[in-house]
Amino acid sequence: MSIKIEKNAYYDAFEYDYEKKCSIEEATTQLCFHYGKVTYKKFIDAKKLSKDEPDGNIQTILGIVWASAETIYHLSRTIFIGIPKAVKGQTEILQCHAFYVLRDIQEIVGRIKFLFNDPNGLYLIQESQFQKKCYDMFLSNSIPVNKEPTSPKPNSSSQASSKPSHKSKEHQEVEACFQCNDLSEAHKIIKNISNEKIKEPLFVKLAEEYFKKDDLKNALRVIKEIWHDHKTKERFIVKLAEAHYENDDLEDALRVIKEICHDHKSKEQFIVRLAEAHYENDDLEDALRVIKEICLDHVTKEQFIVRLAEAYYEKDDLEDALRVIKEICLDHETKELFLGKLAEAHYRKNDLGKALKVIKEICLDHQPKELFLAKLTQAYYRKNDLDNALEVIKEITHDGVIRANWLISIAYSFYGLGNKGRVQQVICEIVKGILIKLVVESKTPQNNYSEIMPRIVSLSKKISDDCFDQVAESFKGGYKPDDALNPIRQNTSKRIHELIK
Question: What is the pTM of this model?
């Protein structure tokens, strides 16, 4: 009889248990009320990563009706099958049917809770269904617990004792140490065994013994002795990390999970859970430190970093928000949108210097960046802070129209203050911008830029000297930007041949 256990959030949570495989296999030959150890906390963590589609209200109501019918059915089997079997000495059959009844009732309670949006409801439903599948496995063998599944005859104690032991001397000595609870001596004996096929399973067993005693430090020390069976070793490491996690010892949980070298998926899923735990405790710095341990799942990592930056932003901690968002290396679009948001926050606080510092971090999305730079220029200009207005507008490198218009406005203001030196400096900036644009449009090879830039600076100064009087003359008639810019553009266009030959 083939019995399939549904893979859902409860099953995924059960996978974190190192004993999962053993527990399901033993369900065919042993009987217990609860296979595996899945706490509600583990279930919730697994559910966040699960793609389970929850039942609707109608399905839930039908599920209650069906579970009620199953309760009656299993109660009948308890009375009419379980009790007669118990009379014949097979008490485990009666016990198993009684377990079914209890799990049916658990499922009904879970479905009622789920109907009223209680998150504990789904946990009860999936746990009851999982355990009932394990009971199905047990009953499918139709044998007492002391009978081998593949053997037609039950074992007797005399038969078992009459079989010769094939265990090595060292193996027997280790088991004797386990019985005497002398784990240190067992460790010494195991380390001296040369046969790795015997040695490594004994290391696993010794690690389990330490784990049962809650001696997680020694359990880790022992399991690290395994060099060949990486799968078993790393499943046990996850189990150790889970134990630290359940004890709210997040630092040791991280230290242990970092021992994994092969199963990166399990490792990084666990690291995300640790980061989430720090985040929920409002330990944002520790959350960042932990999530940075992820090396492969960049999407999950950077989505979490954005959440951390948002958390700092909500706390009005804009400096830390900037520091965190700069950790993003791949999702440039999200990063630069957030940088724009931070710059706006500084602008609203009238902290224009910090707004400029943040907006300069944008490297790809030039249009919003340069619109914001123009906005900053205007803010400084309104404060009559022409020096800073000039420094900001010089950061614009793509939108030549906005750049030139603001520069001529600043030049006009300096002219009004009688500062001819600054006027000439601004005209030089306008000329330089035009020359650079013409050089780019001429498709000059990029490797020549480093050679041509000093010549652009030198020519810009000469042109600005030549057209200064014309610009000054236009300013005498009031602020007419086109009248001031035309002689600059004309003179520059005439002399571009001095750069491009």
Answer: 0.64
